[in-house]
Amino acid sequence: MLRSVAVWVTVWELSRFLVSPRWAxxxxxxxxxxxxxxxxxxxxxxxxxxQRLNRPSKPGRPTATLVTGYLILxxxxxxxxYAKSMGGQGWHYSSTDQRSMPGHSLFQGVYLVEDYQYxxxxxxxxQKSVCKREQRVFQSKVDLALQTVKCFEPLAGTxxxxxxxxxxxxxxxxEAVRERGWDLSGGLKxxxxxxxxxxxxxxxxxxxxxxxxxGLALNPxxxxxxxxxxxxxxxxxx
Length: 238
Hints:
By secondary structure, the chain is of the alpha+beta class. The protein folds into two domains: 11-187, no CATH class; 188-238, no CATH class. The chain contains six helices and eleven strands. Strand 6 (159-164), helix 5 and strand 7 (183-186) form a beta-alpha-beta unit. The longest helix is centred in the N-terminal third of the chain and has 30 residues, at 25-54.
């Protein structure tokens, strides 16, 4: 930023500018996304055209072209080992230290289309006890993810695929993604339950994922029922 300004400023003056109320991160994010859309939208149109030219000729309605945009959501812990008192500071699990450490947790997202990345503005996740102490409104990591899924506007002419880990997979997330007409891929915790068809009684049963996985060694093909839209069923074989 020092190299980009029209006049010479010191690091101190730059830090004063960054904390001043004369600019807003939300406004900056809007400008960044407009620039990203202007750069990537022609690539999306070119990808659709390339698919139309390369698809095989056959009777009937031609296969629709598809350009996928990936919305990747996750969080990361930023350890502040020697910090005494900082806003929003709590104790968060650090995979590097393999234990809870003092610091901040940032909820982050990346939008990826045609190998072009757009980092969403990070949001600080603050634990409920810290919010109570600092008189803040509490939002869980899942709340932040749901808000992103409901409010994010993808590029025109793309189909969005949400990628999350097992922490964010729940019924509310499934429903939010369905309402947008998007796809969802995520991990499942061992205690997550699947609706499995019992071959002996031909009835559907709820089974923990770890118990289901153990049974795969004995029966490699099992029928399961996953989340589906209202009035329909989504089942398959694993």
